[in-house]
Amino acid sequence: MHPIDEATAVRRGEELDTTALEAWLLARLPGTHGPLRVAQFPSGFSNLTYLLTLGDLELVLRRAPRGAAARGGHDMGREHRLLSALHPVYPKAPEALAWCEDAAVIGAPFYVMRRVRGVVLRGRVPPGLALDADGFAALSDGFVRELATLHAVDPVAGGLLDFGHGEGYGRRQIEGWTQRYAAARTDDSPDLSPLSEWLAAHLPAENPALLIHNDFKYDNVLLDPETPSRILAVLDWEMATIGDPDYDLGTTLAYWAEPGDPGNLARFGTTHLPGNLDRAGVIAVYERHSGRRVGDPVFLFAYGLFKLAGIMQQIYARYRRGSTDDPRFAGLVHLVRDCGDLAQRAIARDRISALGD
User: Fold this and answer.
1) Residue ranges in the chain assigned as alpha helix (H)
2) For residue 256, what are the CA distances in angstroms to 209, 216, 285?
């Protein structure tokens, strides 16, 4: 049996009105029939993702989390429009099928897309998946090459230019995440102003704006269970935009834990397992396959960690406000602190790899 990513029972408080949803789907997807069955993909800290089985058709539904208040975030309509434009020119983006802006159906706007069956790597290698050190060597290389391939998509030919404003992207990112972190701070969160000030003072020269994913990590790709180094689909396009591709790489680096990294960030992924590239190797493979030089890796890594800290702090603030009671969020403030500490360590040592000594 292959470890296909499977949904489980819907979490308490995140149930959907299946009667209203089934009626809405049947009216908009010709040739479909019920009954509708609903399960929920159990991981992910942001948007809620459900598996819908409508007769013999498998769909995925995405909606914003309850209590979400991040300005400009969780825009399911934008994500649906982007996928609709992107899928024809980049087939590894899922095929969006329908969009609903009427919150009365399930309590929030949502969209549905066709399901792609595959394996998702989260905190461990799923049982039954043949992924040893050699497999991780092939996967990590192919994963970075996929990011370079994504950056090679022509945003003009794909009709994607309206999804971002490329000029000044880096400065807007630093200013934006500084403001968002300040707005989400709680009484137990760390002061990251020294990090944000360092980033603002060390902005590199801009690169030409391209399509960027902004959350490119192992658990946002679907792998072939027969050949796990082969990527079948790229998921979670919520933050995709037109911007500087170096910052996309920086986000990937922030998620890319190495053996010996201090703190607890490694428990969220598998990049620290034997066979994977280290972060310096990620840069080298990306440069080789993109055909361009990357800016200061330390800046990009520190930026990615600052952004990741901001994302987790926003989620943690929702938990502290009582907007969600998901127990996974209770300890996120410790990971926010780990992000800040690791960024400062990279800056002090002027390198992005071998930071655990």
Assistant:
1) 18-28, 76-86, 133-151, 169-184, 193-201, 245-255, 279-290, 297-321, 332-349
2) 24, 10, 14
Q: Is there a common fold for 18-114 and 133-349?
A: no
Residue 157: its pLDDT value, please? 85
CB of 325 closer than 8 Å to CB of 13: yes
> Residue 210, Cα to own-chain centre: how many angstroms?
18
* CA–CA distance, 18 with 40 (Å, rounded to integer): 13
Q: How many residues does the chain have?
A: 357
Helix or strand or coil: residue 2?
coil
Q: What pLDDT is attached to residue 71?
A: 46
Please count the CA atoms within 13 angstroms of the CA of 201 that sit on its side-chain side.
7
Mean per-residue pLDDT pooled into runs of 10, the chain (357 residues): 79 94 96 95 81 96 74 79 96 97 96 96 88 97 98 93 92 98 97 98 96 97 95 96 97 96 86 97 98 97 98 95 89 96 98 92
* pLDDT at site 82: 96
Helix (H/G/I), strand (E/B), else coil: 48:
strand
Domain ranges for the chain:
18-114, 133-349
Q: Provide the residue type at 9 as one letter.
A: A
Which of 217, 247, 241 lies closest to 78, judged by CA?
241
For residues 77 and 127, give the distance between their C-alpha atoms in angstroms, rounded to a whole number.
36
Crossing angle between the packed helical segments 279-290 and 245-255, to the nearest 10 degrees: 150
> Which residues, at least 6 apart from 187, have a Cβ–Cβ distance to it below 8 Å?
none
Fold classified for 18-114: Phosphorylase Kinase; domain 1 (3.30.200)
Distances in Å between the Cα of 264 and the Cα atoms of 186, 268, 332, 339 are: 20, 8, 10, 9
Distance CA 273, CA 129 (A): 14
The pLDDT value recorded for residue 70 is: 45
Instruction: Tell whether domain 133-349 is in CATH 3.90.1200.10.
Output: yes
At 127 the pLDDT is 87
Query: At 129, is the secondary structure helix, strand, or coil?
Result: coil
**Interstrand relation of 36-40 and 241-243 (parallel, antiparallel or unpaired):** unpaired
